[in-house]
């Protein structure tokens, strides 16, 4: 089943808004794209419009957090990054309780091309002290993790795609900072997040037919990384494959490689991007071009094990 | 020493070991901070958006008996007072040091107060050089659009920014007209404590829109 990340987010935000009156949503004129428009309709008095100004949006959210609110900031991931310095110097430095929840990350904004596709955000956010970084795998994960994100005290970046969210979980039981082990395997370990979790499961099936047992981890929390689970699962294998709809520099692959190189040296193959995206009418054509489909990953793995 | 040395003297004494770190910007900010801190009520918030005037702020804290001599002269030392104001210091709700963000933060606090039906003014002290930052004008639009009458910006119009005279670096004038065009009420005063305080008082009588006090240095 294919669902939509942003629809799941918009709906989950309304549900949380009913339970928690502290939630205030700030928008930079993308509410119909990010689906925070549902929150505006339900709670107009807790919805703040600042116009097309992401930097003002982030710092306004900082003020709301200082005054005791739980501000949720949503925008296209690529354009939220223009407020990186505001996120660094005000939100993260003061450890403010601001929730940054971008949509349209990775290649998911396929039609709009390289300006709108965001393949660097995890690296940029992961490097910030105090910042928690979360990448849900599918639509059912979104409300579960969003609740955790809102209840967590401190800044969080939760990265969402746009509409393509293949179902991974029926009833996810997810906890911030605790990796979700989807499959045990002693030949190779696949560590993925976001849409790539569903791809990793396909890859594991394809490898099974070739008598290769692949473990699969949904590493939905990139920071703080669940090192314990990672090391436990990596101990069984010689090769760890990371899969992300993001640059291989500084993202999940970087995080996994950093931990394993210190704690349990293993060969780490990072699957992700090294270039900017491009416009495409079809999202899958992009995944294929950048080597992020199951077939491409299987070929890559066959080449290294 | 606090009994005899005037604020300007304290500033110079604390800044001489650190190559006069933002001495001028702090000097022109002393009267503004003095007026704002005297006017500030319990529910009010002060944001020093021009965070490099931290020395002036510390001198004020010292005047108020909130900092010891030893603390004052620990300025910018490794475990001493931070060179730009940080959250956690008395009256400081938000760290600064990066220019252009304070007004947006003030708007956020004002919006939260509105949602909660709470009172309280939010004073934001901006540098004139800081007005180069586009975010200031984004925030100016947001405050006017939402009619944030509790937001009072104060521009320290001292005609200097980091590398020279403001008008040589990037023309600022007409500052008053700019704020007016953005939907703000503007009050202009010379940089004297009692004049600034009167302007803050006048600003409170104006309802329905944000206010800016432009404080012109005549030194």
UniProtKB/TrEMBL annotation, chain A:
EC number: 2.2.1.1
Superkingdom of the source species: Archaea
Molecular function as annotated in GO: transketolase activity
InterPro entries (alphabetical): PDH/Transketolase (IPR051157), THDP-binding (IPR029061), Transketo_C/PFOR_II (IPR009014), Transketolase-like_Pyr-bd (IPR005475), Transketolase_C (IPR033248)
Protein's UniProt keywords contain Cytoplasm: no
Keywords: Thiamine pyrophosphate, Transferase
SMART domains: Transket_pyr (SM00861)
A GO biological-process term: organic acid metabolic process
Cofactor section: thiamine diphosphate
Protein name: Transketolase C-terminal section (Tk)
Species the sequence originates in: Thermococcus gammatolerans (strain DSM 15229 / JCM 11827 / EJ3)
From TrEMBL, chain B:
Cofactor dependence: thiamine diphosphate
Lineage of the species this protein comes from: Archaea, Methanobacteriati, Methanobacteriota, Thermococci, Thermococcales
E.C. code: 2.2.1.1
Family membership: Belongs to the transketolase family.
Chain's gene name: tk-2
Name the UniProt record assigns to this protein: Transketolase N-terminal section (Tk)
Pfam families: Transketolase_N (PF00456)
Stretches assigned to the Transketolase N-terminal domain: 42-216
UniProt keyword terms in alphabetical order: Thiamine pyrophosphate, Transferase
Origin species: Thermococcus gammatolerans (strain DSM 15229 / JCM 11827 / EJ3)
MF annotations from Gene Ontology: transketolase activity
């Amino acid at each position: 089943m294919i669902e939509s990340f942003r629809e799941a987010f918009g709906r989950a935000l309304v549900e949380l808004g009913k339970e928690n009156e502290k939630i205030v949503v700030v928008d930079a004129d993308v509410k119909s794209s990010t689906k925070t428009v549902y929150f505006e309709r339900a709670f107009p008095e807790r919805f703040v419009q600042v116009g097309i100004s992401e930097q003002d949006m982030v710092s306004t959210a900082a003020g709301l957090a200082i005054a005791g609110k739980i501000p949720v900031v949503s925008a296209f991931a690529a354009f939220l990054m223009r407020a990186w310095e505001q996120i660094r110097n005000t939100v993260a430095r003061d450890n403010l309780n601001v929730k940054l929840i971008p949509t349209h990350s990775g290649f998911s904004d396929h039609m709009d091309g390289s300006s709108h596709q965001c393949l660097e955000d995890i690296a940029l956010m992961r490097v910030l002290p105090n910042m928690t970084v979360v990448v849900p795998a599918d639509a059912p994960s979104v409300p579960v993790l969003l609740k955790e994100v809102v209840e967590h005290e401190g800044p969080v970046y939760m990265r969402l795609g746009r509409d393509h969210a293949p179902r991974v979980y029926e009833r996810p039981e997810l906890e911030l900072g605790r990796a979700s082990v989807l499959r045990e395997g002693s030949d190779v370990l696949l560590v993925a997040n976001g849409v790539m979790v569903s791809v990793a499961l396909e890859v594991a099936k394809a490898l099974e037919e070739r008598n290769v047992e692949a473990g699969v981890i949904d590493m939905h929390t990139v920071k703080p990384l669940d090192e314990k689970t990672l090391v436990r699962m990596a101990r069984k294998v010689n090769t760890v494959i990371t899969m992300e709809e993001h640059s291989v520099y500084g993202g999940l692959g970087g995080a996994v490689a950093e931990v394993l190189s210190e704690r349990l040296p293993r060969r780490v193959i990072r699957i992700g991007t090294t270039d900017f995206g491009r416009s495409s009418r079809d999202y899958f054509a992009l995944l294929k071009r950048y080597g992020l489909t199951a077939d491409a990953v299987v070929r890559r793995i066959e080449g290294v094990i | 020493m606090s009994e005899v040395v005037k604020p300007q003297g304290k500033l110079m004494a604390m800044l001489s070991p650190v190559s006069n770190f933002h001495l001028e910007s702090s000097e022109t900010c002393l009267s503004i901070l003095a007026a704002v801190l005297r006017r500030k009520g319990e529910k009010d918030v002060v944001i020093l958006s021009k965070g490099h005037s931290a020395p002036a702020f510390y001198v004020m804290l010292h005047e108020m008996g909130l900092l010891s001599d030893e603390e004052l002269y620990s300025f910018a030392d490794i475990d001493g007072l931070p060179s730009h104001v940080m959250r956690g210091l008395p009256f400081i709700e938000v760290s600064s040091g990066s220019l252009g963000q304070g007004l947006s933060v003030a708007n956020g606090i004002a919006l939260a107060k509105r949602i909660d039906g709470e009172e309280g003014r939010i004073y934001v002290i901006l540098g004139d050089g800081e007005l180069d930052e586009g975010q200031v004008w984004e925030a100016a639009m947001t405050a006017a659009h939402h009619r944030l009458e509790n937001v009072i910006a104060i521009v320290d119009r001292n005609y200097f920014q980091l590398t020279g005279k403001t008008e040589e670096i990037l023309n600022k004038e007409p500052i008053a007209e700019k704020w007016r065009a953005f939907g703000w009420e503007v009050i202009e005063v010379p940089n004297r404590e009692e004049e600034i305080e009167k302007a803050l008082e006048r600003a409170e009588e104006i309802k329905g829109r944000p206010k800016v006090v432009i404080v012109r240095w005549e030194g």
